[in-house]
Design a protein that fits this description.
The protein is of the alpha/beta class. Helix content is 35%, strand content 23%. It has a single domain, classed as Rossmann fold, CATH 3.40.50.150.
């Protein structure tokens, strides 16, 4: 187990599960992804793991929490990956670019997933993919009616609605991997849309 992962777990910093990370890294290798946008840097764990796959991989990653951002910058520097990973300190909504990405990995505010999809769809290469993490949200999507906290119930309902909306959106092919980590949603554009 890497020191960075141990430290994140010790401090209760949310990082991608081992299964989710394996899926992500396999996808990057199998599809030869070189340009990646990550929404939600946290301490830089997943960005570092992705960058370590290949020196030709370049990642733009966005974090709005100042403490997390500072830790991420330190961790990226310690991993000697500053040439491959650009971390931006800002709300995701404020990030604007004309860049095209092979992969957009979303591990940020779950209630905003649909908004992020629409915001960054034009930044996705035509044969690229979105990967969304935490789409079963600790299994709570299956027991939404038993959630007592109103805020938590609303969040879980937004995740369920996002899953339903993309499932019914004719622009996309979608595969749900509810058995991997905390749920992974893989979304690609249909050929007719390119």
């Amino acid at each position: 187990m890497s020191n960075l992962k141990q430290e994140a777990l010790r401090k209760d910093i949310p990082i991608i599960s081992d299964e989710g990370l394996s899926f992500l890294l396999n996808y990057i290798e199998e599809h030869n992804c070189k340009s990646i946008l990550e929404l939600g840097t946290a301490v830089g764990y997943s960005a570092i793991e992705m960058a370590k796959l290949d020196s030709d991989i370049h990642i733009d990653t966005i974090e709005r929490n100042p403490d997390m951002y500072k830790q991420a910058i330190d961790n990226i520097s310690k991993a000697d990956l500053k040439d491959q990973i650009n971390a931006f300190f800002m709300p995701i909504e404020e990030y604007k670019t004309d860049k095209k990405y092979d992969l957009i990995f979303v591990d940020a505010a779950k209630a905003q997933y649909e908004k992020y999809l629409n915001q960054f769809l034009d930044n996705l290469n035509k044969d690229g993919a979105f990967i969304f993490d935490n789409t079963i949200f600790h299994g709570l999507i299956y027991e939404v009616d038993s959630i007592e906290s109103k805020n938590l119930k609303n969040l879980v309902k937004k995740i369920i609605k996002f899953r339903e909306n993309v499932h019914n959106d004719s622009r996309f092919d979608i595969i749900l991997f509810d058995n991997i980590g905390d749920g992974i949603l893989l979304l690609t554009r249909r050929d007719s849309e390119t």
